[in-house]
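dumping this here before i forget
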Amino acid sequence: MNTPIATRPLKSWWGTDPLHPLDRHFARFIMELAGIEDNALFLAAALVSRATRQGHVCLDLGTVAGRPLEGISPGDNMSKYPELADWRTCLKKAAVVGAPGEYRPLILDERSRLYLFRYWEYERDVAAFIRKDNAGAGKRIDQTKLEQGLGRYFPQDPMGPDHPDWQQVAARTALTRRFCVITGGPGTGKTTTVAKLLAVLREQPDGADWHIALAAPTGKAAARLEEAIRAACDRFECPADIKTAIPIRAATVHRLLGSLPHSPYFRHDAQNPLAVDLVIVDEASMVDLALMAKLVRALPPQARLVLLGDKDQLASVEAGAVLGDICHGQPTLALGPDRDTTGDSSKP
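structure:
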């Protein structure tokens, strides 16, 4: 058993305590649950609490293991963070730390990432949704009608067939896959693409039966989405009955899921899913991991999800930059101002 450091402040080199009182309280609580007093456990719990407050979903122990401990002189009984192997061994012995899939307050995975359980669970659920084989999911799409509609609303690029129209590619992907991310900066045509793909969808044989929900993280973003969809519909030619059938109303994600007073839970969840076939979320970069997890849990098996946003702007306030993490180094539909853009989000 080590001498606990929970009761003495850690002073960083600029003279302030690097740990917030909430982090210290959480670390003491974890040690009480574990029934032990141990420096390694205290530090791990305090640091994962701090990491979550700072917007991270986990703490990578490898980034701090073996480094000098803030404000502790070399003459102190503990001058640096534990070495990674020793730290992992200590944590795995604690009853409050589990492996992925176990129900423990803290989760330590094989890559030495330490999570609060709920954030590990959120990340697991979002990752499982994304990784599902989504080809052919949901309602059937008439391919002939689809190609006719795409050709009409997204005409051939004047530069020729060697210059693909990425807006058309985005619309086709959104209508034929269970999950799609469309990213791009302001003015790159994301909302216009959505308005046109909704027109293509309404022209399907059963297009009128599709239940479509438009959502955004905030009320202002939802209002902007409504205005943008309405303006986009005014800019392109479309049969009057189809244009009328394109949904305009948008809600916040919280309102869509059905917020419950004084509760972190929602009316719609896995047991009471949304009655939707397609959900489109604008400004998705502002959606944190917890909210995204609750959204995908509430989607019925046949529903499609389309995320719109700029991965480089408007990060979420709470932990988990979901859109940025999805796009980081992964093939996405990145729209550019001239519509002739790369489909790889890792490129500028």
